[in-house]
Design brief:
By secondary structure, the chain is α+β, with helices and mostly antiparallel strands. Helices cover 23% and strands 34% of the residues. It contains two helices and nine strands.
């Protein structure tokens, strides 16, 4: 919501779900406050027993899904999308070593 309103948020959610289906957002509806605002209600699957991934793990994962690292830490592109803020605070790793992107900024190029 901080990045341009409801429509921009829902577009970002669709891109996230395309790129990172293991942590897809589910849309449940809208909620509001005293008839003044409307907020989408979204949910992601909980990743049990997870910890923040290391930046090396994130870089390797993004390369494996055909993204190229840019000159800025945590920023990647595949020629169609640019994804950033892929830092340990936004990517989890479970006990089996699988990575899950739970929060990323994404835009279509």
């Amino acid at each position: 919501m901080n990045s341009g309103g409801v429509i921009a948020l829902l577009e970002k959610v669709l891109m996230h779900n395309t790129l990172f289906p293991d942590t897809a957002y589910r849309f449940y509806g809208f909620a509001g406050f005293d008839g003044r605002t409307v907020q989408p209600v979204l949910r992601q699957r909980r990743i049990a027993n997870a910890r923040p991934a290391t930046q090396v793990m994130i870089d390797t994962y993004m390369a494996a899904i055909s993204f190229t690292k840019t000159s800025r830490e945590g920023r990647f592109t595949n020629g169609v999308y640019e994804a950033w803020d892929l830092l340990p605070r936004n990517v989890l790793v479970d006990q089996e070593g699988d990575l899950y992107v739970v929060d990323a900024e994404i835009r279509k190029l």
